[in-house]
Amino acid sequence: MTQSGIQDAYGTTWKASCPSNIAFLKYWGKRDPALQWPANDSLSMTLTNAKTITSARRRAGGFDSFQFQDKLIDSVTSPQNKVFLHLNRLRNELNLEGHLHIHSENTFPSDCGIASSASGFAALTMAGIAALLETNDWNELALRGASKESIAHWARLGSGSAGRSCFGGFVQWTAGENPTSQKIAPLYPASHWDLCDVIVILDDDKKSMSSSEAHLAAWGSPLFKTRLAGIPERLRRMRAAIEIRDVEKLGVELEAECLEMHSVAMTGTPAVCYLKPETTEFTTWVREQRSLGWLPAWFTIDAGPNVHLICERQNQDLVVDAINKKWRERRTKIMIDRIGEGPMIQRGE
Ligand code: PMV
């Protein structure tokens, strides 16, 4: 489409700024893909710096438009685009009409191997709802059918992990007994514990299998049932470690948890290995240095080859310096992030 999508836009701009999150206990596998019912409870830490900023504005034409970087698309020519399907879902849920122009950008480079679906769908949901209901006041949104909890549920319908990005601090997504009893809620605010996430980009290639496909493939793994049986105990231990701010106890769980998730991925049907030789080399180095007693950092790895090193704030510089010294020659990119307060919706012009 032409620039007319933007010229047709009118009225207030509603801008949502939503951080990404790093899963400590991973959401891996769906019980019901259509209702986005996860196989297990998950727990994450909302970040500060890695964010998506999305603006929504009403538009006059009878269709939606979406701009990301230099690309402008519309719902007439790309009706199956996930952004437009999500806007349809929001209008249906709220029983509202009206089309929107959406503009979205990330604070992190899109080609750096960091998935943006969590922050992206959280920001799209918040900006879209604010524009459709014409308010950014949480009380008013709730009175008009869009409580923060409902917003998180709609966000997770776009991408599961996006639901957790709707809150700050430590957040739990509980699968519940049936698809409608799912719950997404903050456990502790960011002020509870100043943890950092030093994100080490070892490879920026596109994923070999999308997480949507991998969630389904997990059921074919002979390890999956064993993983699911151990989730309640893993969750209990992680929550206990967070409660008393014991980074070592948390770290042991983080590493075992992500390696378990990757073992399921590697033995799924079809199988996928997200880890690269550099990933294993890096995590082996972390464990060696830690056992020498001077690197207080623990890794977790999402559905990709890159590593998130979790450490307490007072050790962040030491961890970053160590990585720079050891891995500089590989031109490894590092992004420094930390626990954050969660999203914000602003009213513009
Ligand atoms: O939200 P999805 O469908 O992209 O799945 C997220 C999967 C992980 O990032 C690996 C784990 C998680 O809980 O965020």
Report on the architecture of this protein:
With 349 residues, the protein is of the alpha+beta class. It has helices at 4-7, 82-94, 117-133, 138-143, 148-158, 211-217, 224-243, 247-266, 277-291, 316-327; strands spanning 9-25, 30-32, 37-38, 42-59, 65-68, 71-74, 99-106, 170-174, 183-188, 195-201, 298-300, 307-312, 333-338, 344-347. Helix 2 crosses helix 3, helix 3 (117-133) crosses helix 5 and helix 7 (224-243) runs antiparallel to helix 8 (247-266). The longest helix has 20 residues, at 224-243. It starts with a helix and ends with a strand. Mean pLDDT is 94; it is low at 1-5. Bound molecules: (3R)-3-hydroxy-3-methyl-5-(phosphonooxy)pentanoic acid (PMV). (3R)-3-hydroxy-3-methyl-5-(phosphonooxy)pentanoic acid is lined by residues 23, 26-27, 42, 117, 159-161, 211-212, 302-303.
Q: How many helices in DSSP terms?
A: 10
Strand content: 25-35%
How confident is the prediction overall: mean pLDDT?
A: 94
Q: How helix-rich are the residues, as a percent range? A: 25-40%
Instruction: Give the ligands present.
Output: (3R)-3-hydroxy-3-methyl-5-(phosphonooxy)pentanoic acid
Task: Give the oligomeric state of the chains in this entry, treating copies of one chain as homo and distinct chains as hetero.
Answer: single chain
- Order of helices and strands, N to C? HEEEEEEHEHHHEEEHHHHEEHEE
Note poorly predicted spans.
Answer: 1-5
Q: What structural category arises from helix and sheet content?
A: alpha+beta
Major sheet details: 8 strands, mixed
| Strand segment tally | 14
Shape: globular
Q: How many angstroms separate the termini?
A: 25 Å
- How big is the Rg? 20 Å
